[in-house]
Design brief:
The complex is a heterodimer of chains A (235) and B (788). With 235 residues, chain A is of the alpha/beta class. Chain A contains 6 helices and 10 strands; from the N terminus they run βββαββαβαααβαβββ. The termini of chain A are far apart. In chain B, the strands form 3 sheets. Chain B has a 6-stranded mixed barrel with strand order 3-4-9-6-8-7. A 6-stranded mixed barrel of chain B has the order 13-14-18-15-17-16. A 4-stranded antiparallel sheet of chain B has the order 2-10-1-11. The longest helix of chain B has 42 residues. Classes of the chains: A alpha/beta (235), B alpha+beta (788). Chains A and B meet through α2, α3 and α5 of A and α12, α14, α21 and α24 of B. Chain B: One of its GO terms (cellular component) is plasma membrane protein complex.
Amino acid sequence: MTRNTFSTKGLTKVYGEGRSAVHALRGVDLDIPEGEIVVLLGPSGSGKSTLLNIIGGLDRATDGTALFHDQNLSEMSDRELTRYRRDHVGFVFQFYNLMPSLTARENVELVTEIARDPMDSDEALAMVGLRERVDHFPAQLSGGEQQRVAIARAVAKNPTVLFCDEPTGALDSTTGRSVLNVLKDVNEKLGATVLIVTHAASQAAMADRVIHFADGGIRKVVLNEKKLTPEEIEW
Amino acid sequence: MVSPLDHKLLRDLWRMKGQAMAIGMVIAVGVGMLVMMTGLVTSLNETRAAYYERYRLADVFAPVTRAPDRLAGRLAAIDGVRSVEARVIGGALIDLDGIDLPVQAQAVSLPDLRNPRLNGVFLTDGRMIDRDRTDEILLLQSFAMAHGLRPGDRIQATMNGARRGFRIVGLAQSPEFLYTTAPGELIPDDARFGVIWMSRSALAAAYDMEGAFNEALLSLTRGANPAAVQEAVDRILIPYGGTGAYPLADQTSNRFVSEEISGLEAAAAGVPPVFLAVAAFLLYIVINRMVQSEREEIGLMKAFGYTNTEVGGHYFKLVMAIAIGGALAGCLMGIAGGRALIHIYIAYFKFPFLVFQLDPASFVTGVSVSILSASVGGMLVLRSVFALTPATAMRAPAPADYSRTGKMGRALNVWLDQPSRMVVRRITRQPGRMAGAMIGIACGMALCVSMITIYAGFDRTIDLTFNVIDRSDVMVSFNQDVSETAIFNLRRMEGVTLVEPVRHVPAILRNGRNSHRGVVTGLAPDARLNRALDNDLAEIPLQKTGIALSTALADILKIRPGDMLTVDVRTGRQPVLQIPVTAVAQSLLGAPAYMDLAALNRVLREPNRVSGAYLSIDQVHASAIYTKLQDMPTVAGVGLKSQAEVAFQTLMNTGAGAIRYVMGAIAFVITFGIVYNAARIAYAERSRDLASLRVIGFTRAETAFVLLGELAIVTLVALPLGGVLGYYLSFSIAAGFSSELYQIPAIFDPASYGFAAMVVIGAAVGSGWLVKRDIDRAELVSALKTRE
């Protein structure tokens, strides 16, 4: 039996207090097995990003437990969470969040310099098909290229898990597909668990597991018998 | 109905309240200083004027040897004279228990049957004298307090050679004696010079002045010509030994008070504008960067259909709210500061009451400078922002283009890690913006450097005056100009190691239309105890025919070596002499003029005369020497240099000079404000990048390095620039603190620069710590969600 990368119990997140309190997560129980591509689907405000933030070590739950392997993220100190992000987690954001003052290679090196067991930065950039543009600054790259640098930066540390929050949200279909292909490659070649948060239901077709969110809870979990490649996905 | 934009305005202000307050504080401090200083000066001038008027201080003083009372009527008949008071004054020595040296005093007569027409006294304790009791006196309050004397106490005083006992019945103040200085000395000292008021008949009896007076006081009608009146007075009094009438402006106490107030005035005119300019420049930079960071919201509003004018108006209001808020806070701070300080100065100047008045012009200046600099800062940047199409707001922000910086830094890459490269590239990519921050910090450094240089300048003035120029221990002054035998008598005393004669000759020095009522000092050749020194502190050999003027005096008279000086002697035969100026001497205390003693006596045709002596003594014999001096009939007063030094130090730390500490504090506040603002803005501009670094797994310290490294480099580059600016600024601030009474040099003192650098670095570390706290607290998630 494969072990779980994440496993949550009664995970709850409440913003604010009293009457103005917003329940972003209402007691989520969830297991995410190692090495899968998991897509979290749901409308805005359904809680999927909140879940991703908590298990990504960016935010803390109000209640419940979130285990990464057998470590309880809810009990980690700030320092331990930083360590956790540094050693295990790669992030890809909708708006790339690259450092504009560093070249593509340097953006990747930003991570390889501090990671425990990183790959070579050029290798990471080659993986996302940017071998030729390593010395370009973000301003000299297209949106898709910037996102691929962001992915290279995220995978260069050999992460255990890759979190992608609307990774194709700002991209056209061709570029979006190439980005998804990279994510698929990373999953297959590195064995990293990939979590993708998206609005686009069609992208669910490439996942091993699709988790549907609504009103701060999981409505259903669907296991994909037959995965599609990004090229086969309708955009 | 409040428009949605105004709602946004209020919310924006609330959201950026920390930053807004930091900006507002800087301008507030600049404006506050201006309001405080001008208010202080206005209030002091008004209070002085009211005090002089209420106690009928004379406009003209006319000393005379002995003039019959009937002359008072002739004086009163002079055109332009409103009233005349003829009185008797005389020198006295007061003996006090426990004090080796007798204290010099002036006895002043009060009319027997009425209040004085001029130069009234203000009774602070006890009662007025009884005209039938010849032993009753009023004593100057400040002198009494310095010696713990009270009404009811008895004192002994020597008048005209006779020792007598007196009973103090009251303590009094007078606008005539706000400051008292022992004859031949420059520095006022409450404890070392007393004033005794007693009945005219009693005082006249003591000084053989029955039916006569030796000083006439005159007040003038409005529009009278003081010079014409003085001439008319001199014509009447010179046959009776008049030494020349002089105006209130030359009266010792008033001159001192005026010097002190004009010292404050100069400081008020010279220093706050510098501070305000720095604050205004900073406001400009900060507003500029703040509006820049709102770029995207501006695009969005335009996308909604707001016009450039509406959007511009909105931001203009935001900027104005901060600038005007800061300026108004500054006005309030200035009023509060002025009120607090004025009480200290009122006590210092011994004014019995206070007329508090503010200068409306300072409010107008302060507020308009703030509005102007903020609008320029806001408008310049808004113009570039308006050029943006609304669509830019709808798209993901394009990353700032750093491609040009990459080429220049290949060599750097070898030994710089990524965070360091971020720091270096950001600085090199936006040199304009970094220069703004850097110049701001440099201005703060300059303020600190110049204020600390001024502190060192004050110390320098004391050191030069009391350790370099005057190396004596004791200064003796004689009753009148005596023959040089007095010097031989002093030399024979046991424990006196060196005696140098000196002659002080009162004179009016003139060069064209510039004149100065002062003293010509005759020094012995090869003087070692009190010398004329040039700017390199080398001794100036005094010529057999010329006069050497202090820098301050040469400035007042606008005269240079080689020019001819007119010396209108106010003693003896009162000759008017033409003497060539041979040198300019370094002096930081007073405005002395030096001549060779023999040469001085020769031009006066009074050979071998001296008026005093500088003594170097063996401290073991000090007490015995003082006793002997006291018993010498020719000695009028004895001054100790150590006492003078303490009095001078006190003067500098409580008078106009004391304001330097307030200004120094303000300089530090502004410096901190500048550095803190620079750090805050840099943080606001980079919060998203920093959050990304934290998400990637950088620790707080590593993340903070990227931001604080930038601050550190900007600060370090600013230090030398600020040092250079401060070097030049210190000259104008030193000039502001210098008066006729003492001069403050702006000397290059490396320690001042080191200390100022420590202050700036301290401010940077403090600001860095405050901002780092915010980095630590930043919510990673929300920081990532917001687009730049």
